[in-house]
Amino acid sequence: MLEKKQSKRSHSRSGSVFWRTFLIIACPGLTALILFTRHSPSAMHIGLGLLTLGAAAFIARLQEHQTVTTQRLREEKERFQSLYNGVSDAILVCQIKPGNHLGRFIEVNTVTCRRLGYSSDDFSRMTLRDISTPDCNTEAWRDHVDSGDPFEQKRLTRDGRELLVETRAQRLYYDAAPALLLLEHDMTSLHSTVDALKKSKVQAEAANRAKSAFLANMSHEIRTPMNAILGYTQLLRRDRTLNVTAREHLEIIHRSGEHLLAIINDILELSKVESGRVQVTEELFDMDRIMKDLERMFQLRVKQKGLCFAMESAWDLEGSIRADQGKVRQILINILGNAVKFTENGGIIVRYGAQRSAVLGGKVRIWVEVEDTGRGIASEEIGKVFRPFEQAESGLAQGGTGLGMAISREYARVMGGDITVVSRLGRGSTFRLEFLAEPSTTEQPDELDHTTIIRLVIDREYTILVADDRENNRRLLSTLLSSNGFKVVTATDGMDAVETFKRETPDLVIMDLKMPMMNGHEATRVIRTLPGGERTPVLLVTASPTGADLPDKSSELFHTIIRKPFKDTEILSAIRDALRLDYRYEYEPKIPSSIFSTTQMRVSSRIIPLPLRLALNQAVRTGDMDRFENLTDELAQEHPLMAARLRQYAEDFDYDKLLLILEDQEKDV
Known about the structure:
Blueprint: H1 2-26, H2 31-36, H3 41-86, E1 90-97, E2 101-108, H4 110-116, H5 120-124, H6 141-144, E3 151-156, E4 162-174, E5 177-186, H7 188-237, H8 244-275, E6 283-285, H9 287-304, E7 308-314, E8 320-323, H10 325-341, E9 347-356, E10 364-372, H11 393-398, H12 404-414, E11 418-424, E12 428-440, E13 450-457, E14 463-467, H13 471-482, E15 487-491, H14 494-504, E16 508-512, H15 520-527, E17 538-542, H16 554-557, E18 560-563, H17 568-579, E19 582-588, H18 598-604, H19 610-622, H20 625-636, H21 640-651, H22 655-668
Parallel strand pairs: 7-9, 14-15, 14-16, 16-17, 17-18
Antiparallel strand pairs: 1-2, 1-5, 3-4, 4-5, 6-8, 8-12, 9-10, 10-12, 11-12, 13-19
């Protein structure tokens, strides 16, 4: 009996341990209740019932948790699918078989299907080779998969089109198996755009070369006759028998030719600015002298508009400076011209000086400020001032091409400086020019208007060969050189020049560049091989102002290069330097710009029709010299000599005489 009781107790105890353990795990909240009722069968039944209820509640909570988790997984999957299919790049996942060979596609996004024209089911039966062009290296991913660097591939669409893509490859595991992820960006449209831009660039460069060639040819064709015009006027200046009237006519022809030449040079300079080929020609000049010239030039125009004009100098340099005088003068004329044009009340102040600095390497920074009380420029329009063919509102109202300040700034920058502006609308503007210059203690030599060589100081006769296919040019040079004591022989082309050199063995050759049969460059190369030819100076003459048609290493082949139209003193000076000669000079005073008295002009100007005379008078009064020039062009159709005389006064800035002549006619009416 005792053993049975002990057995029952042991069984009972082991059962209690089981149930307590189960309750603690399954329904911890009922454990205490079961413990209190473990010796009562009825209580045990109640505990079992409560246990059932607890398990049911637990299962319900498990089901609820499973439902929430499933919903979250579904949302995450939808979010991933949206991102996966919403990207603009193609995403492809394919198998990696043993040996690093690619198998079939496991998954692709909708962009891939849409781009290549296949369905996802199609891709499940395809490999990378099926969507690649025959020349595409489908194993290229091996060299880039570890570095992650992009590489280009060619894909083939279902309808046979080729696409260029930029691919990135990355290893991953898909369903516990090795796979390759390919991210591909379509580069087809970008490459098409780049190709189109390259084609456009080639076309633009071809057009620019054509324009440059046209300008060069046009310049050559114009400069060649201009050389004859200006050359013969220089010869006629030497004629002492010309009367006063003939000299006046000669001066008109010469100034008109130089004006036409200046226009040609401006056109070519604009072409240089556009192509970035602006060059700096440095020379010694006096900055004070330039500023005084500008003051005299603009003083009358400012006075006619009732404006104040002052020039303040902070110049403390001794001697001259070395820079591009022509560009400096042109920039300042442009800035001052704009200041006068856009100022109706108040005045203009010009300040200038120099700044020394150790960082400039021995050079000085020259600055000039032009301050006016004109219309001013709105802040949002200041950028237009320096852009080609663009103008602020005030500029549009006054007309013009919009090139002046753009070219001026380019000039300033190639001289190591810049042009800046500070302006307030309705208050005026201040333009500041800066450029670098080299100071020099050497004074600028006085300018001589006309230098005439009256004879040579030589001990023998010198023979000069002139080779040019244009008869006018040969005759011009022959007359100029013969009158100065040289013996001249001529040749009509390059081959003739070679034969003449063999026959005459001249002391110097003046060679034109463009000639038929054999050009000047080829003829000179042949002459250099002849006896005595290696040491004979050859002066190359060309109508090209840019040097674009000059052969390579021209400086080694020719003694010097002279550009048409040339001055007589330029040719004679080059000969003097090449042959080491001495000349006797005679300095002539400049012929007055107008030798006609004001009284004569008053009488002569009665031929001007009244409406035209009144318009000319108004143009001078307002300082509108563009209109004045147009009106004189109109006058020149009937009375060219009178128009030339009026222009001459304007060129010399003698507006007082112009007004006196034209006002006198008004009073006579």
